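Issue 218. Parser rejects a valid record. Input:
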Amino acid sequence: MPDFTFQRNRRLLKGADFQRVFDNSEIRVSHSKLLLLASTSDLGHARVGMVVSKKNCRKAVQRNRIKRVVRETFREAQSELNSLDVVFLARRGLNELEPAEQTRLLQDSWKRLSRRVKRNDFTR
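Output the parser choked on:
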């Protein structure tokens, strides 16, 4: 049975990790409401970092809900994202969507990312 927990080793925690993905992003999945940047890693499992700024989403409740949806959808998709470090960036207007719409949009984005990984064979 797959492990759907969001453990510490599945998160980008350090600024250097985020910067490496920003500087060396090999794959981009873009939407008007969000952006996923991905870079390969040697860890053997996927990690995600989130950037949900106060500028794009004013209320803390909305920012926390977006992060919750990202964690939930990442847990479901992490088995397909072998050795990737992914940075999720929320864009203006994502907080205006209903949680079900956010979930659907993120699930679609994770699928697009995994298809690009398989098509380009970025995994090591």
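Fixed in the parser; the record now loads. The mean pLDDT is 88.
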